[in-house]
Amino acid sequence: xxxxxxxxxxxxxxxxxxxxxxxxxxxxxxxxxxxxxxxxxxxxxxxxxxxxxxxxxxxxxxxxxxxxxxxxxxxxxxxxxxxxxxxxxxxxxxxxxxxxxxxxxxxxxxxxxxxxxxxxxxxxxxxxxxxxxxxxxxxxxxxxxxxxxxxxxxxxxxxxxxxxxxxxxxxxxxxxxxxxxxxxxxxxxxxxxxxxxxxxxxxxxxxxxxxxxxxxxxxxxxxxxxxxxxxxxxxxxxxxxxxxxxxxxxxxxxxxxxxxxxxxxxxxxxxxxxxxxxxxxxxxxxxxxxxxxxxxxxxxxxxxxxxxxxxxxxxxxxxxxxxxxxxxxxxxxxxxxxxxxxxxxxxxxxxxxxxxxxxxxxxxxxxxxxxxxxxxxxxxxxxxxxxxxxxxxxxxxxxxxxxxxxxxxxxxxxxxxxxxxxxxxxxxxxxxxxxxxxxxxxxxxxxxxxxxxxxxxxxxxxxxxxxxxxxxxxxxxxxxxxxxxxxxxxxxxxxxxxxxxxxxxxxxxxxx
Length: 512
Hints:
Number of helices: 11
Helix content: 25-40%
CATH class of the largest domain: Alpha Beta
Number of domains: 2
Number of strands: 19
Strand order of the largest sheet: 17-16-19-14-13-12-1-15-18
Order of helices and strands: HHEEHEHHEHEEEHEHEHEHEHEEEEEEEE
């Protein structure tokens, strides 16, 4: 999740300001958003699971004062396809062999990495998970000199990742490393490079192993290099667990990045079976999206930027899915990082980073954007949409993407909106024909597998708007808005045929 430059910020700002200069808002011009539903017309059956990712960090360690609360939150979400990522800025938490073997001795050490990974596996036990322990030890790359790493596992080092060329061009060294890590967590231990047994006692079920992370940025891999690496790693881990499935790509260039970083060639090359070894599975691909408001954008303008960028991303999802359907239709898709990265996070680590509190409305904006993208990609047959990220905090790790308060562990509006979606929507929902009269109100009616009739509503603007839906009198409304703040979704009974959506509200109606 690297900081990305804001391509097209000027155009976005102009478009947003033109909206500000309009003589009246749409809600002022048209007093109601009218939603029409045809419950007899099923348009599609959703495959999409609402989920999230969480990244290892110092505040997930047992020494953290919010450790217990954070993992309790993860357990309570009860999501499927949760992604855990051990990311490179915390080398001791992400890499199990920080020094190369030499003179008959190895340096395998899971003492710092294990607690966060195991706590995650325990918190999500019984659910499908995606494990991304993808950081490659830096000594496996050719570098002018050995790459140092902090002695303190709590210290972030964004300079740890440096190399671009592996010292072993066969990639066996890297593949063997990941096979041993997989053995550690799923088979109780492994034999190291000199035949010495390392016992873990772990026998966890890992449904999906994700190979690499944002490889178009990290180590600047080409499609050819990454595909060869994927094949080598998958082949090695398949020997460990033949039932394990795999996720490929995890691209970053699908966010708002410079044009030279946007590489659709990755999808074309990777999804073409002729570019892989025979028998290598391509179970799932992944890629990421972060909206990135400009540095000088006031809060009011950000709502326009964020949803404009979200629409561009949805167009890209359609484009990528055409490639997938053409080359590898059996391969599934997870969008396993979805969020907003504020401009402030480009200076994290500097004194005064997040010197002002992030307003509560920001968390609601981010929750509304996620709910909107979730609904849109459910039209496209995407298998999973992952909110990013579980826990961030100032001066170290992207606070603008957090789902929980970094001081208390208390969930914010993003968490509660996701929880509401997990509890009320998902694969098997029958989406019925739904239209809405105002473009900034998202509405989708659906019938759940248990035959309940529900309606998802999202207000993409920071202002209230009345919504008219025939037949909803007596329905139960669950909602997350700027009044619910850091509390669970509130429920109430709809007394008439209209309801009022507050700014950035995410709402689910359950009809009688």
